[in-house]
């Protein structure tokens, strides 16, 4: 891949046009300072001044096979030359092949694929399918979750970001999912946390009225909200509740799917088969926007002789699907899922735990595969977060200092409130993992200065 010479002048022009005309997601437009990125390859990207960063964010946790994988780039180019686009009502090779490869890997009988443009619309459609399938109005979703930025998805999201939405959408009810480190259930063990979270969920269903609940939507492992791996038995327990009350189980694997957790899907880790499963991001490493819903036989049957009232112009866009076919082939051929599992278990997990032993700012390490979070705290005893939730300006100085130190050591960190997530590409090498851990070590020393 040609690496253009560093050119600060071009960088300045890119930045100026961005500042003048690009309206950025989730941001106060005048309080942000986006880096102008000149290029990217594998686990790295670089700016116009020639500074290179190891990307421990995988973009927004989607470049599961890194940037610019030559086989995927070539597949996109070939598809563009052959058939750049074709409307969703037609059978198109890239689309049917992508659907087949996805269905082969999704758990159980999730064998029909409805393609969307990304994760939020996948969640929107999954919820619509569940409501139509059951004829019931309500949807239960967890606090401390993220399901997307569109109207329904942002209201399902259990995070104050959903409050920005004007009125909320009708029929969304939130519950607490397990999270032992900050337990809402006064639990002291994973077993207690699991049992009490399930009891709480069943009580929620009972008080809402089981016959009014269409679906429970859960991230198999909540990602954006802090990578909380659920206790053994929780998801199986949720599956059981859904079966008991005739509720559709929607597992949102937009972030956790396609290798991220060291399995093709996080549901595989817990041996749970949902009725609907949403995906996006890693399906094609985010090279072209694509998401979707994997649909069980039972729900597909609902729409066998009755039209499904929903669709998208770009559903199963050939360019995006060609990228998915190539990405899935690369993942299979190069053992990317196995690499994520092995590196997570043997290097990243142990490496992060070792950092936690030496750095008082690390309150907890949790995760699996290439999906880890460090909970940074002022005080390990009280678990007071290193910065208050949703801190800005001065109040956020410790996390800002941590982030700046990581970048000074060549690491681009994922930072969300008082946490840093370690979510590098799933085909990371051992050398890259070690480089990233060394930079984190240095950055945590800066965070330590803010502990009590
Ligand atoms: N669901 C989950 C679990 C996610 O992590 C995300 C994005 O981070 C979404 C849905 C929304 O996906 P998108 O941003 O592609 O709409």
UniProtKB/TrEMBL annotation:
UniProt xrefs under InterPro entries: Aminotrans_3, Aminotrans_3_PPA_site, PyrdxlP-dep_Trfase, PyrdxlP-dep_Trfase_major, PyrdxlP-dep_Trfase_small
Single GO molecular function: transaminase activity
Keywords for the protein's UniProt record, in alphabetical order: Aminotransferase, Pyridoxal phosphate, Transferase
Statement: the UniProt record of this protein carries the keyword Transferase: yes
Keyword Transferase: yes
SUPFAM superfamilies listed in its UniProt record: PLP-dependent transferases
Family, as annotated: Belongs to the class-III pyridoxal-phosphate-dependent aminotransferase family.
Protein name according to UniProt: Aspartate aminotransferase family protein
The species this protein was found in: Streptomyces bullii
């Amino acid at each position: 891949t040609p690496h253009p010479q560093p050119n600060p002048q071009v960088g300045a022009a890119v930045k100026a046009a961005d500042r003048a005309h690009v309206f950025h997601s989730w941001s106060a437009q005048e309080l942000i300072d986006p880096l102008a990125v000149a290029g990217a390859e594998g686990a790295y990207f670089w700016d116009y001044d020639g500074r290179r960063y190891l990307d421990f964010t995988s973009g927004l946790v989607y470049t599961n096979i890194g940037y610019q994988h030559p086989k995927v780039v070539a597949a996109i180019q070939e598809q563009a030359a052959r058939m750049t686009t074709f409307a969703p009502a037609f059978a198109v090779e890239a689309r049917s092949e992508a659907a087949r490869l996805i269905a082969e890997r999704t758990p159980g009988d999730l064998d029909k694929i409805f393609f969307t443009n990304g994760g939020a619309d996948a969640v929107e459609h999954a919820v619509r399918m569940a409501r139509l399938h059951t004829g019931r109005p309500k949807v239960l979703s967890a606090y401390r979750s993220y399901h997307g930025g569109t109207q329904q998805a942002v209201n399902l999201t259990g995070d104050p970001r959903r409050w920005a939405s004007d009125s909320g959408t009708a029929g969304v009810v939130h519950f607490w999912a397990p999270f032992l480190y900050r337990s809402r259930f006064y639990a002291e063990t994973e077993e207690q946390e699991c049992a009490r979270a399930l009891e709480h969920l069943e009580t929620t269903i009972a008080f809402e009225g089981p016959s009014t609940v269409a679906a429970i939507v859960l991230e198999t492992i909540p990602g954006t909200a802090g990578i909380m791996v659920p206790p053994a038995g929780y998801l199986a327990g949720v599956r059981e509740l859904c079966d008991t009350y005739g509720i559709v189980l929607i597992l949102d694997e937009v972030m956790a799917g396609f290798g991220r957790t060291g399995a093709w899907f996080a549901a595989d880790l817990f041996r749970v088969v949902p009725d609907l499963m949403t995906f996006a991001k890693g399906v094609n490493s985010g090279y072209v926007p694509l998401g979707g819903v994997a649909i069980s036989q039972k729900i597909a049957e609902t729409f066998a002789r009755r039209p499904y009232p929903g669709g998208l112009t770009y559903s199963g866009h050939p360019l995006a699907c060609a990228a998915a076919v190539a990405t899935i082939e690369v993942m299979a051929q190069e053992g990317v899922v196995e690499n994520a599992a092995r590196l997570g278990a043997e290097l990243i997990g142990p490496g992060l735990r070792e950092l936690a032993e030496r750095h008082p700012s690390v309150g907890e390490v949790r995760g699996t595969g290439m999906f880890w979070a460090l909970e940074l705290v002022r005080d390990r005893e009280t678990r007071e977060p290193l910065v208050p939730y949703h801190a800005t300006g001065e109040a956020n100085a410790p996390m800002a200092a941590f982030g700046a130190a990581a970048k000074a050591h060549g690491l681009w960190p994922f930072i969300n409130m008082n946490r840093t997530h370690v979510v590098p590409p799933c085909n990371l090498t051992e050398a890259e993992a070690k480089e990233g851990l060394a930079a984190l070590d240095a950055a945590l020393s800066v965070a330590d200065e803010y502990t009590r």
